[in-house]
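User: I'm writing a tutorial on reading structure tokens. Could you give me a worked example: one chain, its sequence, then its tokens, then a sentence or two explaining what the tokens reveal?
Assistant: Sure. Here is the example chain.
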Amino acid sequence: MTAALGSKTSTGRALDLGPAVELVSKEEGHRQPLAPEFVSAEDFSPLEVAYDFGRIRREDIESGPRNIWRYKKLLPVPSNVEEIPNTEPGCTRLVRADRLAKALGVRKLWVKDDTGNPTHSFKDRVVAVALAAAREFGFDTLACPSTGNLANAVAAAAARAGWDSVVLIPSSLERAKILTTAVYDGSLIAVDGNYDDVNRLATQLAADRETWAFVNVNVRPYYSEGSKTLAFEVAEQLGWRLPEQIVVPIASGSQLTKVDKGFRELGELGLVEASPYKIFGAQATGCSPVSSAFRDGHDVVQPVKPDTIARSLAIGNPADGPYVLDVVNRTGGAIDDVSDEEVVEGIRLLARTEGIFTETAGGVTVATAKKLIEAGKIDPDAETVLLITGDGLKTLDAIENHVGPKATVPPNADAVKAALGK
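And here are its predicted structure tokens:
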């Protein structure tokens, strides 16, 4: 199932992917027509979308809808994408985090709180873009392998679009994420194995099922572009400027590389001043192949077997790991990892200082930022943004043994006063 720009899709309709013009291999820059393909046949490296943006003005974006489609002229989506039923993710809040900044010892800190998306994680962004592209290519079923958040987003987006969904998850996934996927009544399949086993299975199925769009396999180049909208929103919410530093959690690594791509595109288009910025990566120690490669000065990422409570980041063989290293080194950032105990404390620190309850991935981000600040790698005087990508209600098991009532008392005021010591 292939279609080049200007040609017809399998349904006989002209292909409309907005400003997208072709796919380019990340290693050697080989170019090929737009198609539902994710690896270059020339150099076997990942493919990503190339564009002809034309002139884009801030006012064009600001007059758009209050969701990611305000950036449709920067994405590989149809020109009428906002008119087709979708979950309308994006435009989540950027929180000035002064209390957390004080606790961490930094001057100015912002939290990009993506828990406000339709299924409460940033995955709604990437799935919305993937679905829009998949529709253009003539697919009729939305599918994915997932560690949880993507499962929620795919099942919900397919339901909203009136599509079938097929979602593959590790059988050990958190109960909350299983339930919040199953509720949409798609085909949810639990697989005995870890995420890397599930991902291999999805790749096999994608080759056999011509009408299934696996968002992070055969339509991955389009899917991954959705992460750029995090960069676009941060810049717009800061008054059309780039932050000096940003901390991004690493699973496959795609989000971090696309945040960088988004910042660069804004600068190249003159929508922001192309000022320097540093990107920092965060991993859990129990699944830290990219952090380990960075620490050892390697440009190759060695796969590991995940063992961490941060299951949404538990990808032992991250596809974009080498490109994460490139971005972090180029921007002068760093990558580090934190223990499960530090992850829990990161969740609790963000909750008690800013009233934001994040899942384990956000705990990784906060705890890693703390570690990098203490190590002198994050400049405490530079404006910093933390990406919080998922809601804590998805990973209640991570904190259930760490928090609870301060006391249990009979129903009278004196008992409450005694329990409070006041």
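What the tokens reveal: Residues 94-120+227-398 form a domain with the Rossmann fold fold (CATH 3.40.50.1100). The first helix runs from residue 58 to 62.
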